[in-house]
Amino acid sequence: MKSALDNNRPIYLQIKESIEEDILNGLLKPEDQIPSNSQLVKHFNINPVTVLKGINLLVDEEIIYKKRGVGMFVSPDAPEKLKKRFSKTFLKEQIEPLIAIAKPLGLSQQEVQEMIDRAWKGEEND
Length: 126
Prior knowledge:
This protein has 126 residues and is mostly helical. It is built from five helices and two strands, in the order H-H-H-E-E-H-H. A two-stranded antiparallel ribbon has the order 1-2.
C-alpha cells in the first residue's frame, strides 16, 4: 500500500488504484482480505467517505467483494480482470503512440522490436 497520496488527483481514485496495484503486484491475492475502511482511513489520514467511494468503485467493477460482517476480499478473477484492463490502456496510451512516432521516422516493426528487446534487457539503445 502506498504511504502517501498525491494532492493533484482525486484521493478516492488513488485509494482504488493503490489496491489495484497491490493486486497486480501479488501483494493481495484472490480471496485475500483487503485492509478495512478504518485501517485505510488511519493509514492515509483521510475522510471515511473518501475511502468508501474508492472501495465502492472496486466493488462495482467486481475486483473486490463484501462478506457481510467479515470485510472486503479480492475477487477470484481480479488479477485477470485488471491485467486485461491495464493491457488495453497500455496499448492505447503507450504502444499506439510509439507506433505513431516510429512510422514517420521510417523505423520498421523489426527495428522497433529490436529496440524494445534491448531496453527490456537493460541494454543501451544507440
